[in-house]
Structure formats: C-alpha cells, structure tokens
Automatic annotation (TrEMBL):
PANTHER family to which the protein is assigned, alphabetical: HEAVY METAL-DEPENDENT TRANSCRIPTIONAL REGULATOR HI_0293-RELATED, REDOX-CYCLING DRUG-SENSING TRANSCRIPTIONAL ACTIVATOR SOXR
GO MF term set: DNA binding; DNA-binding transcription factor activity
Pfam short name (any one): MerR_1
Taxonomic lineage: Bacteria, Bacillati, Actinomycetota, Actinomycetes, Micromonosporales
Residue ranges occupied by any HTH merR-type domain in the UniProt entry: 1-68
Alphabetical keyword list: DNA-binding, Transcription, Transcription regulation
Domain of life, source organism: Bacteria
SUPFAM superfamilies given in the database record: Putative DNA-binding domain (SSF46955)
Gene3D superfamilies in the cross-refs: 1.10.1660.10
Protein name, entry field: DNA-binding transcriptional regulator, MerR family
C-alpha cells in the first residue's frame, strides 16, 4: 500500500509516517518511481508506535518494541529489551505519582488551614 493508504488505515498522516521513517521505526520499500510501499506488517508497527506514544513513551524508547514485532512476536512488549524500557517507564511514572501525592497532600493541608481559620 502507498503512504496515503497506510496513513488512512492507521489514523495518522503521511507526514507522521515520514517522521517515523526518519527515526527508523518503519521501513517502506521504494518502487522504481520512488513511491513508498508498505506491507500489512507496517500497519501493525504503526499501531504499536501510536499506542506507545499515547502512553507517554518517547520516539527513542519505541525501537525495542518495533524490533520485537519485526522478530515475529505477537506483541512488542514480550522481548527483554522492551521489558527493560517498560520497567524504566514504570519507575518514572511511580516517581511522578509520588510527586503528585506530595502536592495533593500540601494542597489539602492548606485548604484545611483555611477552613480552621474561617471557623470561629
């Protein structure tokens, strides 16, 4: 399929697909006329890329998941390199949650202080 069809089927734009290609995440074949041709496997890869980006992964984090899919696995997260990225991302998210919990607690304390001052 051509880039426009892949973009439509993946719910993205040709520009985004070219961006993924620049980062080595998708691999089109080139026709004699220079047009990009994609097989159905690339659609699966694009779906994986988009899901990972939506979950907050950076483009640099995605390569192990793509390589895992290209190796014939049913999912991009079942390979050791992907698992390492998942562990790192989980630790990052846990850190954010800890920070947010601290902020929430401070805000609650401040609101409680206001309530106590307003009560005679």
């Amino acid at each position: 399929m051509l880039i426009g069809e892949l973009a439509e089927r993946a719910g993205t734009s040709p520009r985004t697909l070219r961006y993924y290609e620049e980062h080595g995440l998708i691999r089109p074949r080139r026709d004699a006329n220079g047009y990009r041709q994609y097989d159905d496997g690339e659609l699966r890869v694009v779906h994986e890329i988009r899901a990972l980006l939506a979950d907050g992964f950076g483009v640099g984090d995605i390569r192990p998941f793509v390589e895992c899919l290209r190796a014939g696995n049913s999912s991009g997260h079942v390979c050791p390199d992907s698992a390492a990225v998942l562990r790192r991302k989980l630790a990052e998210v846990d850190g954010y949650l800890d920070q947010l919990t601290e902020v929430r607690d401070r805000l609650r304390d401040q609101l409680q202080e206001i309530r106590c001052q307003m009560t005679p």
